[in-house]
Each structure stands twice: as structure tokens, then as C-alpha cells.
């Protein structure tokens, strides 16, 4: 599991949080003898699986949600957790994929039928010891978050995260929503209504909140002070930030090479290895990187790639396949990767070099470039210049109240211009 910091809180007028569980699961009806004492433990395991599905759906593999056994032992008790797991498997509540990868992925769990497709309901915690552990865990986790931020052990500024956290508390969602909701979206809405906010900062500086995980159509149901929210979104943002990363690497290597050439001590011995190897192709043909960035700036990146394919793909499907090429293993070749190499051969060569030792490196560095820009530059500046203006982020986009989007979009454009790019920043309502 990736390193992250997590902050959760509930409004003082919110209901007791309790646990979310399939409405048709009644542990005391299926547990026998001493195992009946594990009833709340099984409910918590179902709750953990459900919350993982709602808060981090992209972490799932084949429907299995990874759950860290260290956390489960702390909450359920070191002696109780193995018994809870065994009982949950025996009564058919969950199944486990037993796929543990050290320092990378925890074992995955998912609900079994008939519980997987059932509706969910809140339940009170009857086990007083478990209730106390949950209370202590949540309190210690909140302290840990801010301690890490204050100690500078997170890649984003403390002041910007505090500003985003304070702004989350201002958000409300409509009391009535007239569209079909799945279990996951219904719970996401309920958590916002109850004021149970969460904010994660991962090791690459991306900020994850209830809003970032919320379905796009439901974001239109959000408001602050009675005003609807507008989203300032960067066109072709993911390939754009990758291009900005390449541009920075080229500039850095060029400066270091110049310092070394003039005999300066600063940077002596730098610019060697992968950094210089990465940029050598871009040095040889900088026009290809400029063309790549220009296409991203115009918001035409995916269409340019699609024009080189012999079949028409739905835009969303094309986008997913392009992003898979950008961030997947470099030896996975297909028609989309061939089209991208035909469009931007030098950039794709540099990308392969970046992923040579670890294919995840490109995604991690691009995410860090994105968070440096959105959280470090834009949120930081908006906080300083207009502290009362509501803002929240959705990774590569910034939401604000309707009528204030001109301010946010203007600052985003100015900060992009400082990096030498002028992308399309759209406003979505």
C-alpha cells in the first residue's frame, strides 16, 4: 500500500458514525458459541471493505479491496483479528485473494453473495472495547497527519493543506437527489451529509478527499453558502504535466552542463546517469517536445493520437488507452503506442528511458509535478491573495463557487505561463 496521510473528522452535530454493513448480514444468527463475541468484529471487517470501495475504488483488483493487516490488528486486537478473519471466511461473509506483495500490496478482501449485492445500513458498535479502539485510532490518526505535515514529511505545504481542510467543512450537498444511486454513491453522499470529511495526502503530493472521489454528476449537487460550484479544469492535463516534467528535466540538464563546462563547482558531477540519458534525445530534437506541448496546450492530444489509428475509438476509451501507454510497462506495445510513437517519437523514446528501471516512475513524477503546480503554486497563491475565497481541488482541477471561476482560472493561467506553457483551462458547471 502506498504511503499516505489521512485526516478525518465529523461535524459536532453529526450522528454517531457507527459502522456500515450489508443490511442482510446478521452476525449473531450465523456465529455459534464463543464466536458470537466476534459479531462487531465481522461488522467492522465488512465496514472496512465497503469504505475502501467508496474512498479508494481504483485500488481494487478484481473487486478485492486491499486492507492492511497492521491496521486491522490495531483496531480489532492482535489476538482477535485472526479469529475475526477465520470466522468471516467460515460464515461466507467475505473471501480473500491471499495476494500479498511486501511493501507494495496488502491482501485483498471482498464481500461474498448474497451480501455483495445487498443494500448497506449503519449499525451501532455494541462492543465497548472495539468502540474505544476505533475512537482512539481515529484520534491518533488525525494527530499523526498534522504532525507529519508540520514536520515537513509530506511533499505539499502545510498551510495549503490546512486551507483545503478548512474549506471542506463549508461544503453542503442537496437534501434531495433525483438520480439513481449505487450503494457506493449513496454512501459517499451520506458521508458528506453527516459531515464526515476525510483528506489524504499521498507520497507524491496528491490530495484525496470526499470530493475527489465523488461522481462527477453529484459534484453538481454541491454548494457553499448557497452557491453552486464551478470546476476549473485543465485540458489534456496528464500528458501536459508529463511534458512539463520533460521540459524541466531538459532545462535542468542544460544548466548543469553549462556549469560543468565553465568549470563551476555547483552541479559538478551532476547531470550524469538517467537524467542526462533521458534528455539526450530531447536535446537532439527539441522541436518534438515543443510540438508535444503545443498539442497539449490546444487540448488536441488525444485527437492527434486518434487520427493515427485505423479504427475510430470512443473518446473516453481512447483516453484510457493513451494513459495506459504513458504510465504502463514500456514493453507493452499495441496500436495506440505505435500511433503515439508516430506522432511524438522523441518524447516516447524519452518516456521509455524514464521507465526503464521502474515503469511506475513516470506516473509518480508526473503526479508530483501536478501537485507542485496545483497545491504548491495555485492553492498557495489563492490562499495568500484571497483567503476567504472557497476552493477545493480535484487533482488537476480546482473547484470554486460560481462567479469566482474567473479569479481561479486567471491565476492558473498565470502560473502556467511562468512555466512557459499556455494550456486551455475550461470551466465546467
The number of helical runs is: 17
Return Rg in Å.
24 Å
Total E-strand runs: 14
Average pLDDT rating? 88
Biggest sheet record: 6 strands, antiparallel
Give the N-terminus to C-terminus distance in angstroms: 34 Å
Q: Give the number of domains.
A: 2
User: How large a portion of the residues is in β-strands, by DSSP E?
Assistant: 5-15%
Name the overall outline: globular
In terms of structural class, how would the helical and strand content be classed? alpha+beta
The portion of residues assigned to helices is: 40-55%
> Low-confidence segments, ≥5 residues, pLDDT <50?
1-16, 266-273
SSE map:
Elements: E1 4-9, E2 19-22, H1 27-30, H2 39-55, E3 65-66, H3 69-76, H4 80-90, E4 94-96, E5 108-111, E6 120-123, H5 128-150, H6 158-168, E7 171-173, H7 183-193, E8 197-202, E9 207-209, H8 216-219, E10 222-224, E11 227-234, H9 237-261, H10 274-284, H11 286-297, H12 301-306, H13 315-327, H14 335-343, H15 345-354, H16 361-385, E12 391-394, E13 397-401, H17 405-418, E14 425-428
Antiparallel strand pairs: 1-8, 2-6, 3-5, 4-5, 7-10, 8-9, 10-11, 11-13, 11-14, 12-13
Amino acid at each position: 500500500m502506498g504511503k499516505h496521510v489521512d485526516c478525518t473528522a465529523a461535524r459536532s452535530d453529526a450522528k454517531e458514525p457507527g459502522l456500515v454493513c450489508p443490511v442482510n448480514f446478521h452476525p449473531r444468527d450465523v456465529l455459534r458459541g464463543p464466536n458470537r463475541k466476534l459479531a462487531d468484529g465481522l461488522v467492522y471487517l465488512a465496514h472496512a471493505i465497503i469504505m475502501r470501495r467508496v474512498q479508494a475504488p481504483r485500488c481494487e483488483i478484481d473487486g478485492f479491496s486491499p486492507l492492511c493487516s497492521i491496521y486491522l490488528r490495531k483496531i480489532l486486537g492482535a489476538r482477535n483479528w485472526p479469529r475475526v478473519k477465520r470466522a468471516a471466511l467460515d460464515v461466507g461473509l467475505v473471501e480473500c485473494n491471499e495476494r500479498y506483495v511486501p511493501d507494495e500490496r496488502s491482501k485483498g478482501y471482498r464481500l461474498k453473495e448474497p451480501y455483495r449485492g445487498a443494500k448497506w445500513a449503519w449499525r451501532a458498535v455494541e462492543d465497548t472495547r472495539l468502540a474505544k479502539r476505533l475512537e482512539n485510532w481515529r484520534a491518533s490518526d488525525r494527530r499523526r497527519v498534522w504532525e507529519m505535515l508540520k514536520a515537513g514529511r509530506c511533499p505539499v505545504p502545510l498551510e495549503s493543506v490546512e486551507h483545503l481542510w478548512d474549506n471542506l467543512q463549508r461544503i453542503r450537498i442537496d437534501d434531495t437527489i433525483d438520480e439513481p444511486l449505487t450503494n457506493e454513491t449513496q454512501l459517499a453522499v451520506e458521508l458528506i451529509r453527516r459531515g464526515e470529511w476525510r483528506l489524504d495526502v499521498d507520497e507524491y503530493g496528491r490530495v484525496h478527499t470526499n470530493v475527489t472521489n465523488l461522481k462527477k454528476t453529484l459534484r453538481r449537487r454541491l454548494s457553499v453558502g448557497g452557491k453552486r460550484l464551478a470546476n476549473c479544469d485543465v485540458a489534456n492535463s496528464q500528458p501536459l504535466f508529463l511534458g512539463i516534467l520533460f521540459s524541466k528535466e531538459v532545462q535542468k540538464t542544460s544548466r548543469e552542463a553549462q556549469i560543468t563546462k565553465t568549470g563551476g563547482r555547483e552541479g559538478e558531477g551532476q547531470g550524469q546517469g538517467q537524467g542526462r540519458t533521458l534528455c539526450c534525445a530531447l536535446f537532439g530534437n527539441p522541436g518534438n517536445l515543443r510540438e508535444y506541448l503545443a498539442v497539449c496546450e490546444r487540448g488536441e492530444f488525444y485527437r492527434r493520437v486518434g487520427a493515427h489509428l485505423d479504427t475510430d475509438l470512443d473518446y473516453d476509451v481512447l483516453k484510457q488507452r493513451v494513459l495506459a501507454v504513458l504510465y504502463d510497462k514500456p514493453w507493452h506495445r499495441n496500436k495506440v503506442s505505435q500511433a503515439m510513437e508516430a506522432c511524438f517519437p522523441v518524447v516516447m523514446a524519452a518516456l521509455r528511458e524514464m521507465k526503464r528501471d521502474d515503469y511506475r516512475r513516470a506516473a509518480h513524477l508526473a503526479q508530483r509535478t501536478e501537485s507542485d503546480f496545483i497545491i504548491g503554486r495555485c492553492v498557495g497563491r489563492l490562499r495568500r491573495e484571497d483567503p476567504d475565497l472557497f476552493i477545493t481541488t480535484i487533482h488537476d482541477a480546482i473547484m470554486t463557487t460560481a462567479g469566482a471561476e474567473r479569479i481561479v482560472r486567471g491565476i492558473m493561467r498565470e502560473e502556467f505561463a511562468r512555466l512557459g506553457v499556455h494550456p486551455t483551462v475550461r470551466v465546467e458547471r
